[in-house]
């Protein structure tokens, strides 16, 4: 939301495929940092997971808007949509945690990264298939899962909200 204050809704120009690619870049960077443990540009795993969270919310907002909608959206509208998407995804997380018994707590952070990458490849395939699926939950569910995996990783990294 701070970047929206600074830049407005410049992200509205991004097509969903571009947002998916941005999430891929961030997840791949996390994987590289997990393996090489060296950053030449000063960013860290935490900031990349936060970026994934934000891009997932942006993707979900873009899903509900059409290309014909204005590229500039008032801050208050974006803030409301952002909070709605986060709340909806948080509710999904609680439901899944109930069903899965919070299994994520016993997972390695690197496994959460791999799950995010798997979900990205699923979304890319759905996009390549022009949204046609046989058994998929769709792209929104995958964005929600990536967001929640990122939150789990941030919790495991000790990040406070």
Kindly describe this structure:
The protein has 161 residues and is an all-alpha fold. It has one domain. 69% of the residues lie in helices and 0% in strands. The chain has 6 helices and no strands. It has helices spanning 2-7, 16-36, 45-64, 75-100, 109-128, 139-156. It is globular, with a radius of gyration of 16 Å. The two termini are 14 Å apart. The model has no long low-confidence stretch (mean pLDDT 90).
SSE layout and pairings?
Blueprint: H1 2-7, H2 16-36, H3 45-64, H4 75-100, H5 109-128, H6 139-156
Helix pairs in contact: 2-3, 2-5, 3-4, 3-6, 4-6, 5-6
Pfam families: DUF1599 (PF07659)
Protein name: Nucleotide modification associated domain-containing protein
Domain Nucleotide modification associated: 3-63, 96-157
Supply the key terms.
161 residues, Nucleotide modification associated domain-containing protein, 69% helix, DUF1599, mainly alpha
Query: Which of globular, elongated, flat, extended, rod-shaped describes the shape?
Result: globular
In total, how many beta strands? 0
Q: How much of the residues is beta strand, in percent?
A: under 5%
Helix content: 55-70%
Number of structurally distinct domains:
1
Q: Which residues sit in consecutive blocks of at least 5 with pLDDT less than 50?
A: none
Mean pLDDT: 90
Largest sheet: none
Protein name: Nucleotide modification associated domain-containing protein
InterPro entries: DUF1599 (IPR011630)
Domain Nucleotide modification associated: 3-63, 96-157
């Amino acid at each position: 939301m701070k970047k929206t204050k600074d830049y407005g809704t410049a992200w509205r120009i991004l097509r969903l495929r571009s947002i998916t690619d941005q999430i891929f870049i961030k997840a791949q960077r996390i994987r590289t940092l997990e393996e090489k443990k060296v950053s030449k540009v000063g960013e860290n795993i935490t900031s990349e997971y936060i970026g994934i969270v934000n891009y997932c919310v942006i993707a979900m907002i873009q899903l509900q808007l059409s290309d014909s909608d204005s590229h500039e959206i008032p801050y208050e509208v974006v803030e409301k949509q952002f909070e709605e998407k986060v709340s909806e995804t948080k509710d999904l997380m609680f439901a899944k945690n109930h069903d899965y018994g919070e299994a994520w707590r016993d997972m390695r952070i690197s496994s959460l990264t791999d799950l995010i990458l798997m979900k990205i490849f699923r979304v890319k395939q759905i996009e390549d298939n022009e949204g046609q699926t046989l058994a998929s939950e769709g792209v929104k569910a995958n964005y929600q899962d990536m967001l929640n995996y990122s939150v789990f990783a941030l919790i495991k990294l000790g990040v406070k909200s």
